[in-house]
Amino acid sequence: MCGILAVLGVSDVSLAKRSRIIELSRRLRHRGPDWSGIHSFEDCYLAHQRLAIVDPTSGDQPLYNEDKTVVVTVNGEIYNHEELKAKLKPHKFQTGSDCEVIAHLYEEYGEEFVDMLDGMFSFVLLDTRDKSFIAARDAIGICPLYMGWGLDGSVWFSSEMKALSDDCERFISFPPGHLYSSKTGGLRRWYNPPWFSESIPSAPYDPLLIRESFEKAVIKRLMTDVPFGVLLSGGLDSSLVASVVSRHLAETKVARQWGNKLHTFCIGLKVPLILKLLRKLLTTLAQSIMNYTSQCRRALMLWKKLFITLRRMMSRPLEQVPQCF
Ligand SMILES: NC(=O)C[C@H](N)C(=O)O
Q: Among 171, 229, 219, which Cα is nearest to 5's?
């Protein structure tokens, strides 16, 4: 999770406008407490609130290509960034951030690079050479993104609606798997898997393939330089995730630095059945530590905070909750 805000083509380039954009970006501070950054170029602003996951020491954003003509602000994790860097051999990387690869891929391949990314992301990229910009959101919309239009013709993008709603004349939820290009002035789908148009899936059911894909999906998400935990509900999905993590934790960078105890978290009431399931799960997870919050009042306070955080995003709650990432 990080927070991004980009405002492109504002008519007012005064210091007051810049301060306003910084103030709006602060509305996303809860998404990234580790760093706040802004880059402005003429009438364009790219701001970032960072939750540092990969390269916490030098990966602050916005990020750039070598001569800083391409600027990006990204919320996301690019799981195949090492592989992509290897393809971009002549390029010089300034940071160890997984997201810097986006600026160099754009330099190398233009707007068509987005389907090379394996990850969850939403980003805005500004090419200062011709003042064009693109914005994109991952295949299924794990990372949130909203797009708005100001009365002065400016185009806005933000991780949360609360940074757009007071300053834009209208705004939309940016569709998952799409790319906006200022050159064409429209949205187009970049994610076009072969099965997309099938109404009934034609691939035969293959449980081993499902297991293998599930394990791979969990393992690639262990790409972090900071300690992490697993949130347990007591149900099947989170238990399966925890069991795959516990089996592969020892191989990770994090375990080498922080030890290979798996931290798990659970929030809820002490319902005997759930406690029984959690206890059973913990006996199967080697070296795990459980943090259980069961105080009703604290849980309610957290819900209150969550509603305030998601303010104006709750019209379709089930759709919006995963978008907190
Ligand atoms: N967390 C993010 O969304 C950005 C980037 N992956 C970082 O670790 O800084």
A: 171
2 is catalytic: yes
**48-65: pLDDT as tens digits:** 999 999 999 999 999 999
Q: Measured in angstroms, how far is the CA atom of residue 53 from the centroid of ligand 1?
A: 5
Nearest atom, ligand 1, residue 121 CA: 3
CATH architecture of 3-189: 4-Layer Sandwich (3.60)
**What ipTM, to 2 d.p.?**
0.97
Residue ranges per domain, the chain? Answer: 3-189, 207-294
31 lines ligand 1 (CB under 6 A): no
Q: What digits encode the pLDDT tens for the residues 75-104?
A: 999 999 999 999 999 999 999 999 999 999
Minimum CA distance residue for ligand 1 atom 9 = 52
Answer whether 218 contacts ligand 1 (Cβ < 6 A).
Answer: no
Please report which residue ranges of 259-321 form alpha helices under DSSP H. 272-284, 296-309, 317-320
- pTM attached to this predicted model: 0.89
Distances (CA, A) of 200 to 196, 197, 203: 10, 9, 9
Of all residues in the chain, what percent carry a pLDDT higher than 70? 90
- Ligand 1 center–CA 90 separation, angstroms: 24
Instruction: Please count the CA atoms within 13 angstroms of the CA of 61 that sit on its side-chain side.
Output: 37
Query: Which H or E run includes 20?
Result: helix 15-26
Is the CB of residue 50 below 6 angstroms from any atom belonging to ligand 1? yes
> Cβ of 227: how many Cβ atoms within 10 Å?
12
Question: Which is catalytic among the residues 2, 99, 143, 266?
Answer: 2
The chain-wide mean pLDDT, for the chain, equals 89
52 ligand 1 Cβ < 6 A = yes
Region of poorest pLDDT, from 110-114, 146-150, 216-220, 229-233:
229-233
